Amino acid sequence: MRQSMAQVLRGCRMGLVVGSIALSACAPEKTDYKSIAAPPTVKIVRPEPRTIVRVVGQPSFIESYERTSIYPKMTAYIEKWIVDIGDKVKKNDTLATLFVPELREDYGTKQADVGLEKERIDLADKAVDVAEADVKAAEAAVDEAKAELGKYQAEVDRWDTEVKRLTREVARGVVDKQVLLESERQLRSNTASRDAAKATIAKSEADLLARQAAAAKAKVDVGVAKARLAVAESEERRLKAWVDYLTLMAPFDGVIVARSANTGDFVLPASGDLTAMRRAPDLATTNAAPIYVVDRTDIVRVFMDVPEQDANFVRIGSKATVLARAFRDKEIPATVTRTSWALNVKSRTLRAEIDLPNTDSQLLPGMYAYAKVMIERPGVRALPKAALVPLADKTFCMLLEDGKAVRTEVEVGISDGEWVEVTNHRRPGPTTGPLNEVPWTPIDGTEQVLLGDLSVLTDGSPVNVSTDEKKPKGAPSGKPSVAGG
Question: Looking at the whole model, is its pTM more than 0.70?
Answer without folding.
Answer: no
